[in-house]
Amino acid sequence: MARTRGAISPSRAAIRRVLDTFRQNIPELVRGFVTAADSTFDWRLDGSVYQYTRFETLRSMLGGPIVDPTSVRPVISELWATSSIHLNDAREFRRGQEVVEHQLARLPNDDIRRRMRLAIKDADALEVYCSCFSAVDDDLSQWRGYGDDGAGVCLRFDLGGLLASVNGIGYWVVYGKPGNETVQMSVADQLLDYVHSTIRLNLPLHSVPGAVYNEVRQQLSEIWPALFLAFKHDDFRAENEFRIVYSDAVGRPIAPCFRPDPIIPFVKLQMRHGARLPIQGIRLGPAASADANVRSLELALARLGLGHIRVDKSDIPYVPR
Amino acid sequence: MIAQVLQAIQDAFHPARVEADLKETEGRVYGSVEVLGSSEFDSLDDIRRQRLLWERLRAILGPESTRVGPVVLEPTNRG
To answer: Is the ipTM of this complex over 0.90?
Structure first.
């Protein structure tokens, strides 16, 4: 739903302003509600997170298939985030939607809840982009799932540096599934209550114009996808995932790009002030962990002015079949 | 709780002055605050302003911080 531009009523503008601010608070609220529901949840905002990917991705970051330090500049100032309808969990978006829809029934049955429900139906994951990281270093299942079956690389990022500069919001994923969903339901319940009261307390006291409710629905249809992605099916728990999520609703506007396979929307998330991505190290996958590869990558990085990035081999004795 | 929100803003941005329009209803604080004369505030985008505010809110209020907001910080960077 396109955002109405031009002059709007003060009450509609007030709701827009408040929900604009709410979008920016999503990670903080999820954090607050998760740690209230599960005191053991390690919601850290520093240390390292790991991104397993193909070698080709690293080569693209360094300048292309042929890395020529005399003619290319590495583009390690962009974090690629993929449309969330192309993520590997087929129920990725749906799990969050289910949890939120389920808990919506606990709210008062009023005009606000009605718009909250309608906005869930409007919500679309296509232009909500995700860049995924794991808390787990050198992990066989991650190599198999994301690191080109062990022939890829794992990029080690400084989480604090990433959060300080990247265009988007970041949060740890909350896992659950039917039968083991207390934390997810509690978080969704509190988030919905927060949204409902925020809207209610900011509505005009008497005779709310239809346009204001339309604004609520429109805003929430943009906000819900970024919230849904905070929830993931429990079968992925071992990934211990941190996500950077971007959409127009939660970041500075950027145009999408498209890559083959056969066509996948993605965005290049810039760091603020053109800063480089805070990559601390690169670990070669088990199938690429030859000493020759380590030394060659170290040489390439040094020649590109990236000698501060540490190169390591995998410790896993995995041989792909 | 309004006093704690204002303290959090002070701790986060060290402004020369704030103009607050905050209300406390049903145990929740909401409204807007204009932050004036703060180089920290001016150097950040809206998302990071909110993050910094929440860090301070969490330090002051602990779990009760989720009773706050959304507090609109002005001037915003959004169009």
So the answer is: yes
